Q: What sequence folds into this?
């Protein structure tokens, strides 16, 4: 295979893995528990910055310099995501779906503003650099393979964990709550507690994805946590791939990232005079692609396996 | 069934969009600009300036034995996700041997770390001004034709003190451009006896800044430093200050040098505006570029237009000098950009080709500066103060 | 800080911006109430409205204030068209899909604006306008007075329409209880179309007013979107008076926030108020509906 193409595919799959992890997390929150979390970028940011702060070298004027090992950074990313998901969840989850979305957007935006403004914590607009990368000293091709292996391992582990939970009583109970909350509550299930669990689990995965992203790029700046390129993309990935279905979440991540990336190559084929307009057209195409998916296959490509869920109107 | 067809269609499309291996008579460079994202307003002019350089190169003999220089446009989006994607595509799919861009500092960091440094691809950014880039461990593969903000802020501070302006209020946009300028301005200004009556940052996305301006005006200063973009919130802030009678004198850096300011506010209202911008040692270099760019309907005073042109032209010169060896590009870049050598002005491709072929040293004098790269791939800044005259910005005096 | 400064540089700008937010919030609350989804494309529809006025001015040479009604009509037609092609078929599906569709519409509308008019900011008129002093105390510009007048006219007109006309009552019925409304013979499809006509007109007005008081640029609506949503929810979803109240409060709060918060957190004001109201009183100040 052409080496350039191989390099490019390796890169794509690392990012697909990272976004796939977020998609899995969102699937637990939305597909399983019916929680409309529009603040993915916030948890991504928490995981990213936590791991960055824990593992990067000392810089004057900023908290850090711990130089801890990378795995500690990743563990810290997940722990802090969980720690912040808990109060956010307790407070926001009793809201109805659209309101939950708006509340979580608000939370994510506040996190982004804090990341951008508080120099002493996050490096402010400059961000944090010098973040170590596992196997980073190897040659380009080797270190890409190594990172891909790490990302894939993490994704597979997350997938197996969630699949196990899905098929366990916990998963069945979550679906029961999602599909008919009143009945589930009447049967004595602790609805809010279960939903909080789902929210926290999903957020931990999103935080981990942030950590993986940051170590891949060895740097983090506030532009990386813009909701347009994090929250929005992950939502489209899950909707296209099939919400409620873990493989759908991963497939959606692959397809949407491919479309996102390839659409640029497509617009490059257009004449150069309109090259810039073509880049705007790319956004138009993404919006259009979303419309087409919603029109012709709104349940996504890989629909949820349990057919009974297709009949109902969905959560409130 | 549908799934299989869909997957097949996607794969086919994917394969179709991958361009063929670059032809033997082409030399490809990537042009990565922030076309979508925070600085989208500036990108079209930057792209056009880069293309001007490429067309001049091709019209005067091309690279080497007549190979066409081709620029493949990519969107770095001013965020790391897009930037790494565009850079990876440029290097691996488009087979670019070097890259002009990306535009934003965070994008440069991400692209450098993830693909260009590991693959030994030289990149030269026309607009990434963060001091972080100086510290970057880049195996000498990252250059820039725009001085680090550290220089411009300090130069502006000295210029103001020289003109007798000793007390100012500062407002800067909350991104690395604004923060870098503001910090370097502050340290130099205060170190040399100036007083900062107020110092704050502002969000770049609001429709009204009257409350912030009122607070700043209460500090008593007559002069407001606006470290922002003239085609963004800088315009709003300037207009609202003028309309409400806050401040008499306004000072900005190169980000404010935008025709949108003149068009929206009117030159007659901008008499109290001073702007600093990088400039070459000779106004002649800037003049050559401006003439050529205007002939192509470009706006030479556009923000980062001159630096984009210089970055592309320098890269072409380096490619010519390195004779096809991409690993020799860093040395070649330094060789063609730094003294000693026969001066080459913007547009003088044919002359440069002949000199290189004859083994002579050349020294490119750019429209935005001499670009004497230091060890870190940075350039020192040479700046001038501008004011608004008629429909344009006119130079008043260079700053030491 | 004295009263003069407080009123002229904090209160008045806040009320001005707030009244523009109010127009946006009315549109959002109508969509929330009658169509029952979060209209994420509202911001970019506002942007489109502002640029439509520019377009009408360019084609006809009219004064911006005269171009506005024409732009409002165009915006209404475009809104109906978007609904027919992008939202209509999702009516029976889970609401999240319509919300996602509206996000897609937002991207498409923004891309069209960028392709058609570029990304540089423009204005309806060149130059700066200094205010006139009224009663030796208040500084106001003509365009600001006109803005307040237009907002008041729109709000009064809309309230009159909703209360006094048959179609207005049909809209209110659909907002309260769509099934019952249908049983009473309300043609829901017509009401939906009417809603989009009104929303389109309001978006054009909001865009124009925002543009004439500041600048016109491709991201103007998107950046105001969350403040507008905060305003609609603060006031109480489904209530026009709630949207107006919410808009004014959010506008003034943003301008006052710089007195206590560092100014780079200005955007956080709307979010903070939004979170607070969602937690403490989700039905909003004037007790709108809970979706």
A:
């Amino acid at each position: 295979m052409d080496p350039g193409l191989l390099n490019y595919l390796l890169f794509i799959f690392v990012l697909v893995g990272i976004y796939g992890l977020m998609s899995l997390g969102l699937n637990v929150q939305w597909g399983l528990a019916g929680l409309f979390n529009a603040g993915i970028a916030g948890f991504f940011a928490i995981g990213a910055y936590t791991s960055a702060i824990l593992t990067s070298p000392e810089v004057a004027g900023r908290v850090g310099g711990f130089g801890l090992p990378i795995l500690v950074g990743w563990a810290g990313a997940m722990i802090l995501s969980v720690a912040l998901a808990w109060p956010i969840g307790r407070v926001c989850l009793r809201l109805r779906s659209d309101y939950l979305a708006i509340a979580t957007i608000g939370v994510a935006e506040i996190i982004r503003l804090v990341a951008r403004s508080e120099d002493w914590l996050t490096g402010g607009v400059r961000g944090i650099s010098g973040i170590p990368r596992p196997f980073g000293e190897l040659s380009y091709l080797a270190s890409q393979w190594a990172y891909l292996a790490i990302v894939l391992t993490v994704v597979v582990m997350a997938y197996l964990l969630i699949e196990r939970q899905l098929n366990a009583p916990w998963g069945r109970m979550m679906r029961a709550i999602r599909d008919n909350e009143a009945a589930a509550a009447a049967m004595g299930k602790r609805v809010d507690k279960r939903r909080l669990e789902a929210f926290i689990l999903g957020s931990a995965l999103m935080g981990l994805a942030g950590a993986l992203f940051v170590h891949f790029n060895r740097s983090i700046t506030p532009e990386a946590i813009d909701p347009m390129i994090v929250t929005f993309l992950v939502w489209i990935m899950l909707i296209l791939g099939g919400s409620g279905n873990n493989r759908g979440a991963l497939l959606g991540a692959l397809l949407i990232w491919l479309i996102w990336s390839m659409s640029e190559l497509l617009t490059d084929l257009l004449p150069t005079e309109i090259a810039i307009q073509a880049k705007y057209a790319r956004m138009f195409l993404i919006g259009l692609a979303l419309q087409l998916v919603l029109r012709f296959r709104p349940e996504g490509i890989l629909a949820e396996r349990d057919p009974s869920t297709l009949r109902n109107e969905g959560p409130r | 069934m549908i799934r299989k067809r869909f997957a097949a269609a996607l794969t086919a499309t994917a394969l179709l969009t991958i361009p063929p291996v670059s032809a033997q008579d082409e030399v490809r460079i990537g042009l990565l600009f922030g076309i979508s994202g925070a600085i989208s307003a500036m990108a079209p002019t930057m792209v056009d300036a880069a293309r001007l350089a490429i067309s001049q190169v091709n019209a005067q003999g091309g690279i080497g034995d007549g190979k066409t220089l081709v620029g493949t446009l990519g969107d770095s989006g001013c965020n790391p996700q897009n930037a790494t994607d565009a850079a990876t595509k440029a290097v691996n799919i488009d087979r670019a041997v070097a890259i002009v861009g990306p535009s934003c500092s965070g994008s440069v960091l991400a692209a450098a770390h993830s693909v260009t440094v590991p693959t030994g691809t030289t990149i030269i950014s026309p607009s990434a001004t963060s001091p972080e880039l100086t510290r970057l461990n880049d195996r000498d593969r990252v250059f820039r034709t725009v001085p680090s903000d550290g220089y411009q802020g300090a130069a502006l501070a000295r210029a103001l003190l020289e003109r007798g302006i000793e007390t100012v209020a500062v407002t800067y946009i909350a991104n690395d451009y604004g923060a870098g300028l503001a910090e370097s301005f502050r340290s130099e200004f205060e170190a040399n006896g100036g007083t900062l009556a107020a110092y704050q940052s502002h969000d770049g996305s609001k429709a009204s800044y009257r409350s912030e301006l009122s607070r700043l005006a209460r500090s008593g200063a007559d002069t407001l430093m606006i470290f922002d973009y003239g085609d963004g919130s800088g315009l709003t802030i300037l207009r609202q200050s003028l309309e409400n009678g806050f401040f008499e004198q306004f000072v900005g850096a190169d980000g404010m040098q935008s025709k949108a300011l003149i068009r929206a506010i009117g030159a007659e209202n901008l008499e109290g505006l001073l702007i600093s911008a990088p400039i070459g040692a000779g106004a002649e270099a800037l003049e050559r570029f401006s003439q050529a760019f205007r002939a192509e309907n470009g706006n030479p005073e556009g923000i980062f237009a001159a630096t984009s042109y210089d970055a592309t032209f320098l890269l072409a010169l380096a490619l010519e000098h390195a004779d096809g060896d991409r690993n020799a590009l860093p040395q070649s870049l330094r060789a063609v950009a730094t003294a000693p050598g026969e001066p080459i002005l913007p547009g003088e491709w044919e002359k440069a080709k002949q000199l290189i072929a004859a083994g002579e040293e050349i020294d490119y004098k750019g429209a935005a500066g001499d670009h004497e790269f230091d060890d870190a791939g940075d350039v020192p800044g040479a700046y001038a103060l501008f004011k608004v005259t008629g429909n344009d910005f006119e130079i008043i005096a260079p700053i030491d | 800080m004295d009263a003069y400064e407080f009123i002229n540089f904090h209160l008045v700008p806040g009320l001005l911006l707030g009244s523009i937010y109010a127009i946006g919030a009315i549109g959002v609350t109508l969509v929330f109430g009658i169509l029952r989804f979060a209209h994420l494309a509202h911001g970019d529809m506002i942007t489109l409205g502002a640029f439509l006025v520019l377009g009408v001015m360019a084609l006809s040479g009219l004064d911006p204030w005269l171009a506005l009604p024409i732009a409002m009509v165009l915006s209404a037609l475009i809104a109906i068209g978007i609904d027919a092609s992008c939202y209509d078929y999702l009516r029976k599906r889970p609401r999240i899909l319509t919300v996602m569709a509206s996000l897609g519409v937002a991207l498409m509308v923004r891309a069209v604006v960028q392709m058609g008019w570029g990304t540089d900011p423009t204005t309806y008129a060149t130059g700066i306008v200094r205010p006139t002093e009224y009663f030796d105390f208040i500084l106001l510009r003509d365009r600001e007075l006109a803005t307040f007048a237009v907002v008041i006219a729109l709000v009064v007109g809309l309230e009159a329409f909703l209360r006094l006309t048959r179609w207005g009552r049909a809209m209110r019925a659909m907002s309260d209880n769509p099934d019952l409304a249908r049983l009473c013979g309300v043609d829901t499809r017509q009401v939906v179309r009417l809603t989009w006509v009104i929303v389109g007109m309001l978006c054009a007005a909001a865009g124009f007013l925002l543009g004439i008081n500041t600048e016109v640029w491709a991201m103007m609506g998107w950046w105001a979107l969350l403040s507008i949503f905060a305003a609609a929810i603060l006031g109480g979803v489904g209530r026009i008076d709630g949207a107006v109240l919410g808009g004014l409060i959010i506008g003034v709060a943003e301008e006052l926030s710089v007195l206590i918060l560092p100014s780079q957190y200005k955007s956080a004001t709307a979010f903070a108020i939004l979170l607070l109201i969602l937690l403490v009183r989700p039905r909003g100040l004037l007790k709108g509906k809970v979706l």
Q: What stands out?
A: Strands of chain A lie at 128-129, 219-220. Residues 3-225 of chain A form one domain. DSSP finds 13 helices and two strands in chain A.
